[in-house]
Input
Amino acid sequence: MAEQWCITIVSEGPSPFVPDVYVDPDTPAPTALIASTGDLVSWNNQTKDDHDLAITDENFEVKTPGSSITNPIAPWKPSPKGYVTATADASPVPPATVTFPVTIYYACTVHPDEHGTIELIA
Amino acid sequence: MNVENSPFHAILRRLSLMVFAAALLVQPAAAQGGSGSGKKALPTNTIKCIPTASLPDLDEIVTKDGVLSGTLYTVSEQVRMTTTAGGPCYPQWVRAYRSSEPASWNPPSSTITNPKPGPTLRARVGDIVALTFLNVIDANKFPGVDDGKCDETSSYPGTYGDTYPDCFAASVYTNVHYHGTHTSPNTTADNVFLNIRPSPRKQGSNEPEITEDTVKDSFAKFFEQCTQKLTAAGPPSMWPRRWSDLTAAVQKTLMDPVETYAPAWFVTNDKLIKQGNWPQYYVGAYPYCFQIPEYIAPPKSTTPDAAPTTSADVRTPHTHGVGSAEVDEAADPSRPLVMGQAPGTHWYHAHKHGSTTINVLNGMTGAFIIEGEYDDAINAFYGDAGGVKWTRSASAKTMVIQQLGTAPGLLVGGGGGPGPAFSVNGALQPTLEMAGGSVQMWRIANTSGRGGVYFPAPATGLQWKQLAQDGVQFNAANYGSSSNLNRPFLLASGNRADLLVKAPAYVANGNNTYPVLVYNTVDQSDRPPWKPAVAAATLLTVVVTSDGPAMQFMPNAPAFPAFLSDIPDSEVTGTKIITFASSAIPPGPPPASKQTIDNKPFDGELGVVVGLNKAEEWKILNATYPPATGNQISHPFHIHINPFQVTELFDPNAVASTTNGAGTVTVTMATPTATSSTVTGTGTSFTKDFQVGDWIWINGSGTGGGAMAPGMVLSVDSDTSLTMDAVPGNKLPVTTPSTYVAAVPQYTINPVNPRVGQCVLNPNDPRSWKPCSATVPATNRIWWDVFPIPSGRTFVDAAGKTVVQIPGYFKMRSRFVDYSGYYVIHCHILAHEDRGMMTVVQVAPLQTPYSHH
Output
């Protein structure tokens, strides 16, 4: 059974992308969402700006221009499209050869300096 | 005794801590699994499970002075979600029903709880339901929705073939279906056409714009007026009937938010209102108000046909007059109530087309207990417990079974599958304490969105007798039948059962635990004997703590209301044939499929029309033909508002006889896509055991795991070799020698030398496609509101070529009485319903607006 995760887009703080998950009161908030392959991820835009996210390489360069994983996210709205985590862009089933963890890199195509990661652990 | 502080609980707590400590020891290793020396340690996204050892109690909203009043919140909250017993747990945002406002509209990330069903609603027949419904889900916690579009992920709708409106859509829009109520399907009652979106949130504070405070004054006046109107007129009156029945203030409370936040919806609502219809769309809040009608037999002295003892005597309402009678017939004070609400265990759940699956998966279900003379009789026998009526005491357990999760398989590129493990009141495999020799009442509601829960006979020592099915009590004959003791039973998705359960005596220094085992099944072929290797799972465990006072089962059933008498032939005035089907969209296979009724996915169009206060008999067909034996689907048929009785059952997959085979078998398949498999035996006598068309049930597992699905014998090649159809998902081969069962199907299309117990169906004559012997009792029929339609069957020849496909079916009779309006029938596998297997029923008033000449 897949899980569903939410990442908040914020305008202040060390990272624009904050996983909206349970955190022990004494534990710092995680900087990357930790998920499994085939999980469903959405983004909650808590800023006044539009955002649109795409998968990138490890240098946060967009791999395939125009390949939004969220569709444009309006201010104060959730992403209209959910992203199903995958080790490869096209397949939610990890090849047997994959060694975990696998890092998924993504960035905002509207604000290229805003980027984040998802750690796949299975 | 305070059970929380009992010695038993202390032991349980210690055991839980030990298990948890062991989990802590294991978890880091597991979380770092595969991280050999020099490899990066794997982080984890799991959190500590805090299992509830005992069956959790449920919150309740309880009727007072004849009115079930309260607020039902639909909220978003973070829970420790686990889909398998023993964990792991994941922090997950879910949509949930709650009876109180969340502590915070912007909760810190450390706020988390265990999942649990919505509050139990507890009312009594005759009461008015007056519930404020608030949708205060924080929509931003979930993928966004677009009106008029399917939900979109990187996998969905994709190639599944789903198109709006028959798809997963608008997951945060919702409503409430009061499943099992006999009441109005219209306006503010059990109206599942309503679509209520979440209140918008204020930027910064995240507080909803629409809260209880913003609607309470207006709704309070509405509830007061509604209660007065419904009470004064008595059932089966309906109020409000028209939008104009509402005061301007209430109209404004409901429509202003729509105009402000959903202008397109406002335009549609305005059009509906101008047409004289009830508006369908709302934002944030809605007032549910309806009556739970109490049947009162008229006095014999004044009414010749009073106190009916058979349904033929049930009063037929007369209609008179012309003109506006069509509109007001149900409000005609001279029209008597025909059925009344059956007191019993009912339930409620989200039912907005497109979001039903995900809402119910998240846990948006709860029990709706409607008390009445049924409870009075039980209480009279068992007495009060600590000053509390027995059926409300700790001896009466409400058990809400759910399959909890967050992401339906289709949304993430998967299939349907059996779904998560069954939880009870939000807990997986809880324990339930009983004193030795005591009797409890279990009100069990299977509120899962897919899985049927099959209860085999109880563990030795534990005993049960069924009191009611789907919230309708058994009559004396059914309750008192010897077969009603420890009888296995199936609760398909949506079914309920009331049981009296008797604990065995306490065994000093012995084993005092009695697991209640269940199978997850949507068809008989999902469980033994069809799949011998499938193991039952523990639903809960009864723990006998010490001997208590010896208690007995009630000797007699509570008095049976006259309105629940059998529907005889003489009362039936119409018949219909309705066909449910899942069919693959080429090139298939499922889940790329169409879900239809009468070959049509749901589009809001009328599917069935019935005259008010008529009884009809419907033949409900299942024209779903799996590509191979073993993937059968028995769609659970559900109809709103009125229960029904089953009068005929035809299962083309029924079994005539079974024989345990000698020796063992292994199975190979030439290629992963081959349409047949080779079964090789050791010490077997296949030529004696099998004929072409028989079934072989293998007690083994494929190499990919999972029990071997049943197969059909395509050819018998020798005593040690035969060919069977291939079953997708079996992950062949089966290399471990396994035992097997030879099963003779009850129905064959081969007219030559049918086997003992077999009946011949003529593939060219559909009139022969019916049971060859009585399949249901002619009298004392049980009432249902969900019933699985037996799967269709594909008959093949020796070459595996399809000869004919024959649908399964059942016939049901129902009284379409008391309440006119629109409601629905649908498959209670809710992904099928969301994807199109639903249609509209109109119960039309008998009287037209026109006069005769």
